[in-house]
Design a protein that fits this description.
The protein is built from five helices and no strands. With 119 residues, it is mainly α. Helix 2 packs antiparallel against helix 3. The longest helix is centred in the first third of the chain and has 30 residues. The radius of gyration is 18 Å and the shape is flat. It starts with a helix and ends in a 9-residue tail after the last helix.
Length: 119
């Protein structure tokens, strides 16, 4: 997420006119995404210890709360002129990019880059 944030910062500063507002929004979004990630981890750990039906309801409810949190942060960013809502969006979107790139990062940076043995 941080690497995406740095990349978004570099590209964003070249494209936007309100550089400070974009930076504030971006890093606010990345920081909030860390909080959302922590909430997701905690929710999954709790759900694993529940019965299946109860865990499903719990995860759905917590997912709704995370979505509501995401929406409220974006609404606040739109109404506060000091923060760029585009920056907040990219910061909050960092988890999605990190999740999509994690297999690639794991394969080429954590492992030695070679294909696993099929034996």
């Amino acid at each position: 997420m941080v690497l995406f944030g740095i990349l978004a910062e570099i590209i964003g500063l070249m494209l936007v006119q309100e550089k400070i507002a974009f930076s504030i929004g971006l890093w606010l979004g990345v920081s909030l995404q860390f909080a959302i990630t922590w909430m997701m981890q905690r929710d999954c750990e709790r759900a694993v210890e529940m019965e299946a039906e109860q865990a499903e309801k719990y995860i759905r409810g917590r997912s709704f709360l995370r979505s509501l949190f995401w929406f409220l942060v974006m609404a606040a960013a739109i109404n506060i002129n000091v923060i760029s809502c585009i920056g907040v969006f990219f910061g909050l979107f960092a988890l999605k990019v990190a999740a999509l790139l994690s297999p690639v990062v794991f394969r080429y940076f954590i492992c030695d880059g070679s294909e696993p043995d099929s034996e």
